[in-house]
């Protein structure tokens, strides 16, 4: 039997843009192939480069022609709430009332496995149509909802990081776990899902106000027992929340110190928001190697405040962009990038579009320690990528009539774009979304 070296190879021709390495100057350190070739096999990237100079070594390669379209690594959304999918755009409140009036009643529906399993499919469909291929996700307090989400992601061979929310006080009693059940359920979920296929577990205390000291203590023990699991929580999002934490935990130096005291601030820990930090908190995050999820649409929608990206980066704290659906208002990482730009404008800084793109691809992967798998198109990485059409409507056709730099393409997509720009999304080399509309 003759061996055919082309078996399983698949090529994609497009404008290709990614960051091959970790960098502190993404503005300059991107790789761009105006006429590029991506080759994949068995769910992995095996080549990324210029089309014309390299196509001859792949005689008769099965090529998908996306010429003129933009091929990027799949987006990474580093903070979102799966059970809040159905409550986007809930009117009028800031964080604490919003949680009471909308969030807790909605999350209660996820006690029902069948309901959660159906919603997991909706949630993943929304991610894929927006070009997001990996996410770090809060489920509800119910173990069965986390099972449902992991099952749905496993079906698509997706790299998903997720965890059961833990909360044992200051929320409705019908939605509370306990230190014991939080520990038992989280441990069982770790044993079932962590490291299975591309799935990762995330220990998930909702935030300091809804966890007792006893609960944070058992979660800290669990984190020590399983050093490769991620951790996620919320931090300094809203002034009333911060005052509440101070009254609940009067002995602690600051909000972050509550988590730090229980061993929950470390590499692989991602804190959502971190808007109103004290000097010591910036330092503590930096010393521990923890990361921040910057959620601009949520911070504006809930009136929480303006994240200080420049300050985080001065402290060398990894920052990742995130939607925070459903406090956030869109599944689109492009829109999220556009809103991040506006938040930085109000802070007196200009967010370079390449910098922003880095925070939702390679920069996020580096912060999570996953850059061997996701965030880039390097040979050996998983073939998770998205094809965008910069000319997806009448307006963008006008906007891009003349030659455009990759910076300009990304910037205008971040301000004008959303899921209408997505042509196709691939996970581990397989299409998980293809637009119905013809993109020519
Ligand atoms: N703080 C505690 N829970 C939540 C939540 O669900 N969303 C946001 N944005 N902040 C929180
Ligand atoms: Zn959140």
TrEMBL record:
Keyword annotations from UniProtKB, A to Z: Hydrolase, Metal-binding, Zinc
Enzyme Commission code: 3.5.4.3
SUPFAM superfamilies the record matches: Composite domain of metallo-dependent hydrolases (SSF51338), Metallo-dependent hydrolases (SSF51556)
Pathway connected to this protein: Purine metabolism; guanine degradation; xanthine from guanine: step 1/1
Gene3D superfamilies assigned to the protein according to its UniProt record, in alphabetical order: Metal-dependent hydrolases, Urease, subunit C, domain 1
Catalytic activity of the protein: guanine + H2O + H(+) = xanthine + NH4(+)
Pfam families cross-referenced by the UniProt entry: Amidohydro_1
Protein name: Guanine deaminase
Source organism of this protein record: Paraglaciecola hydrolytica
Lineage: Bacteria, Pseudomonadati, Pseudomonadota, Gammaproteobacteria, Alteromonadales
């Amino acid at each position: 039997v003759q061996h055919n070296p082309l078996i399983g190879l698949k090529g994609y021709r497009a404008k290709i843009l990614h960051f091959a390495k970790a960098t502190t100057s993404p503005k300059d350190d991107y790789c761009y192939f105006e006429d590029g070739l991506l080759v994949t096999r068995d769910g992995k990237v095996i080549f990324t480069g210029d089309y014309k100079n390299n196509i001859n070594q792949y005689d008769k390669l099965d090529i998908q022609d996306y010429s003129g379209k933009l091929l990027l690594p799949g987006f990474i959304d580093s903070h979102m709430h799966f059970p809040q999918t159905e409550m986007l755009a809930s009117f009028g409140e800031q964080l604490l009332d919003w949680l009471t009036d909308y969030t807790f009643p909605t999350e209660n529906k996820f006690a029902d496995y069948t309901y959660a399993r159906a919603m997991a499919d909706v949630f993943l469909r929304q991610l894929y149509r927006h070009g997001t291929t990996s996410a770090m996700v809060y489920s509800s307090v119910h173990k069965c909802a986390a099972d449902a989400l992991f099952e749905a992601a496993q079906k698509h061979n997706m790299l998903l990081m997720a965890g059961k929310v833990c909360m044992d006080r200051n929320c409705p009693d019908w939605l509370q776990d306990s230190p014991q059940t939080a520990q038992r359920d989280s441990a069982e979920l770790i044993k079932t899902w962590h490291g299975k296929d591309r799935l990762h577990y995330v220990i998930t205390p909702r935030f300091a106000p809804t966890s007792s000291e006893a609960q944070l203590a058992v979660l800290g023990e669990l984190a020590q027992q399983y050093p490769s699991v991620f951790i996620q929580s919320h931090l300094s999002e809203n002034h009333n929340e911060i005052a509440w934490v101070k009254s609940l935990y009067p002995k602690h130096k600051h909000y972050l110190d509550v988590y730090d005291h229980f061993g929950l601030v470390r590499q692989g820990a991602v804190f959502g928001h971190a808007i109103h930090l004290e000097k010591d908190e910036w330092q503590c995050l930096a010393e521990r190697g923890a990361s921040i999820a910057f959620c601009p649409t949520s911070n504006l929608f809930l009136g929480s405040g303006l994240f200080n990206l420049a300050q985080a980066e001065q402290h060398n704290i990894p920052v990742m962009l995130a939607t925070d659906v459903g406090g956030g208002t869109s599944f689109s990482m492009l829109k999220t990038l556009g809103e991040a730009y506006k938040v930085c404008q109000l802070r007196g800084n200009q967010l370079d579009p390449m910098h922003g793109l880095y925070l939702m691809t390679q920069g996020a992967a580096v912060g999570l320690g996953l850059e061997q798998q996701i965030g880039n198109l390097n040979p050996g990485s998983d073939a998770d990528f998205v094809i965008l059409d910069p000319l997806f409507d009448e307006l963008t056709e006008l906007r891009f009539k003349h030659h455009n730099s990759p910076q300009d393409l990304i910037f205008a997509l971040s301000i004008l774009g959303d899921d209408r720009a997505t042509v196709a999304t691939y996970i581990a080399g397989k299409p998980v979304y293809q637009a119905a509309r013809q993109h020519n």
